[in-house]
Amino acid sequence: MPKAVVKGAGYALIHANDMILTHGTTLTTERMSNPDSDLFADVPKNVQSFEETVAYPPNQCYIGNINPDELANISSPWYENGIENASRFGKFGEIMPLNEFIGAMRLSDTFDLVMLEKDFAEKVKAALTEHPLFSAEEVAKIGNGYDLALIQGLLDAHKADPLTFDGKIVGCVKQAHDFDVNLNSHVMFENLVAKASGVVALRNLLAKTDIDINEIEYVIETSEEACGDMNQRGGGNFAKAIGEMGGLANATGSDTRGFCAAPVHGLINATALVSSGIFKNVVVLAGGATAKLGMNARDHIKKGVPVLENCIGTFAVLIGEDDGVSPVVRTDAVGRHKISSGASPQAVTTAIVTEPLDSVGLKITDVDKFSVEMQNPEITKPAGAGDVPTANYKMIAALGVKRGDLDRKELMNFVKKHGMQGWAPTQGHIPSGVPYVGFAREAIVNGEINRAMIIGKGSLFLGRMTNLFDGVSIIMEKNTGEGSADSVAREDIRQMIAEAMRKLGDSLVSQE
Amino acid sequence: MDLENQTRIKALVEEHGVENVVVVLGGAEAEASGLAAETVTVGDPTFAGPLAGVELGIAVYHILELKDLVDEAVWDEQISMMEMVLDVDEIVAEVKQFRDQGSKYSL
Asked: Tens digit of pLDDT for each residue in A424-433?
């Protein structure tokens, strides 16, 4: 069976302060229940500017400019210790300002639903033309824009959702149907954000990975949005729509859903498709969510912390045929929380972490790094949810103690050695395992570590269909090179020489 | 506390009577556990859910306070790992504080 390897990873954050107010559910529900709330004035006063967002250490880690070890060495609070001269562009991706992103939304808008105000459209075109991943020819498709009065008219008639930048209306997303709730302006807004942000991640992946895009045959989209109309809510297909915008001419695709666990489900599916020989290269990606912007704004403001949930997060990972170098995704040690596994934390950790390790004779300590739910603790702690990655590492360590894999007094040492500080935005599916894939690839290729486990967990009860929990895991590990194309060729040559020698021997014997 | 959970607790109290309902928390954080205890005793402090301004005074405990009531094998299977991980004293103190302040009933 061919091996599937991790060939590359791309990551992007979209600075989206304005969307906290217009489309974050904390603010939109507040608008319905308490329209005179102080929150509407407090949030804009407590958000990070684009420059502050770029300098914010966890964001620099997300795009690969600092690694998790370097992040851990920066004093906290990180929001008071921004990195000087930080770049918006990084080794794995970028942090995009909202004006450029609104332009990207317009370019992702196949049905002319995004309307930009004239002056703003010109400024966006100028800004995006400078962007290395958007061509001038493409940027011209943004068009000339519309009079603000026309946009305001649609907003007043509740036929559109506002696009705002620096607090001013600069455009709108129109409804795609007069009666269909699944095509109303709010849903179209969320879906176009998911699509356009997925495109940004995909383009970063393609720019930073050595791959001929014509060799990519499949895309799996793993966000938490659903596109479709009133006859098929969630019919799809974000994957193909994003692939189209990435120029993946030879790919098709589909959407995989599983709440926060979906990206790791996607990685498992991609690994299966590649290792079975069905497709040579598969991209797993996800767009981001506007709904979660400013989710904990109330708690952050109350505790004097900036409203740190101001970025849309997105990623793209390429799983491809064995190249002899890139880390291999093991197919014999895939963790899964079964329907019968049970919901207690130790049942979940057993199912996702220790059962797959046991199946191949590995101990917890044989995994150099665990990538769990990598939420930035500066976001979750003020909201009363604690340090999520650390809690996960303690659970894995405690299970190791119960099993006798490590001594109880080693518990915190295990957390330090095999764990990491979280850096991902609380975008649901985004923190779940995948933020480390890029770093894991690099560390394994460079020989710094041998093995990493990528874990995704999902709270399915939120959909009110089941109370079951969910979780899956994969192991990435060092490529031995034995299954690579080069070594196969060498093996072939060895066999040919052996065959020739055998024939020579036979002929010498027969001559005797 | 989740608004849906507030709705369910309110409905259970209406159905069975507040004196017959005990809330057992399983939160992993002291602050969140305290918030939940506060919500079911003196009302939702965020004034966002159906228990806003509703002083139920329910008997409320964290599962970590009820070890003696749980079968040893079940405890070992369900809780023992988390018992090793969580700050038990902090969580128990936080929940107890709100129980002492607002619970009208006890086990």
From this structure: 999 999 999 9
Are A205 and A7 spatial neighbours (Cβ–Cβ below 8 Å)?
no
- What does the pLDDT average to over A377-391? 94
pLDDT in tens, A248-265: 999 999 999 999 999 999
At residue B52, the pLDDT reads 94
8 Å CB contact between A442 and A90: no
Chain A hits for B82, Cβ within 8 Å: 344-346, 395, 398
The average pLDDT across B48-71 equals 95
Chain A residue at shortest CA distance from B36: A384
Q: Is A72 on the interface with B (CB under 8 A)?
A: no
In terms of residue numbers, what domain contains B75?
Answer: 3-102
User: A444 with A452: CB under 8 angstroms?
Assistant: yes
Indicate the CATH number of A324-481 among 2.60.40.10, 2.160.20.80, 1.10.357.10, 3.40.47.10. Answer: 3.40.47.10
| Position B15 in a domain | yes
With CB atoms and an 8 Å threshold, state whether B79 touches A344.
Answer: yes
Q: Is residue B29 part of a domain?
A: yes
Assigned domain for B80 exists:
yes
**Coil, strand or helix: which one is B66?**
coil
Q: In a 3-state reduction of DSSP, which class is residue B38?
A: helix
Question: pLDDT tens digit string along A265-315?
Answer: 999 999 999 999 999 999 999 999 999 999 999 999 999 999 999 999 999
In a domain, B107, yes or no: no
Of residues B29, B46, B81, nearest to A402 (C-beta): B81
Q: Exposed, middle or buried by CB within 10 Å (0-12, 13-18, 19+), for A268?
A: buried
